[in-house]
Amino acid sequence: MEHVFCRIMISAPECTVKIESDTERKAAEAAEAILRLSKGRTQEVTIEIECLDGPAGNRILKYLSDLADELEGV
Hints:
The protein is an alpha+beta fold. It has one domain. It has 2 helices and 3 strands. It has a 3-stranded antiparallel sheet, with helices on one face. Strand 1 (about 5-10) and strand 2 (about 15-20) form a beta hairpin.
């Protein structure tokens, strides 16, 4: 990958995953897939985002936070 637009680190009790993507959408979709693996245990997960575009990083964080809350209630 030539250009890393966004890096996301997801840490859960069972694993830590580093996602690097060249677009906001790809980063969010990959992080969502990983977060879904912790369904029902999302309060144990931490998410760190480094993004070249601050508003995009904030959107991803908001999206993943909302998803974590939804998955926790399931």
